[in-house]
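Deviations from the work plan: none for this task. Representative record:
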Amino acid sequence: DSGVTQTPKHLITATGQRVTLRCSPRSGDLSVYWYQQSLDQGLQFLIQYYNGEERAKGNILERFSAQQFPDLHSELNLSSLELGDSALYFCASSPRGGDPTDTQYFGPGTRLTVL
Amino acid sequence: SQQGEEDPQALSIQEGENATMNCSYKTSINNLQWYRQNSGRGLVHLILIRSNEREKHSGRLRVTLDTSKKSSSLLITASRAADTASYFCATDTMNTGFQKLVFGTGTRLLVSP
């Protein structure tokens, strides 16, 4: 158990809908990262937050957005869902996020299926 | 896009044998990390090697890094059925002051009893 929790575990929805994925980082970790893992794209970095502020952006679509709240939990919002958004979405946390030797601790993931 | 390409894509061995996985990457890095993922589960950090290190050990794991060739290898010695998983290399090409990992394509390892 990494100490990172993600809810829900599974999510099945229809095209065009909007969903919110939630992540609680390890106690004391300030950075939260979101990743998408799909069969065709592999594991892709989406976005990073550090202590409530956006710090780095990866291959995140405009239909997707995220935020980190004062209690450091984070939410990833996916809207206008398409079939291709079906994937595993992982959240990870690290103590700082600016130290290149920081280890990222991954949550168990949310499996999103768009029908 | 992915920074790392891993080879082989899949590897099947018997318990007790050694497993070697290779990772090649494209740009300069600060460090390289190896992660393990059991089927459909979250990733688990295995080991980190800095760009100024050439070899690192952790239990049955041995990682090498050759920055001139932009490649790394992960060796698992005396493999066990419980080592069956996918293994990913991840590079940190931090330019912004914050860590940003780029993952490779992964090697699926199957260890048979």
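The longest strand of chain A covers residues 42-50.
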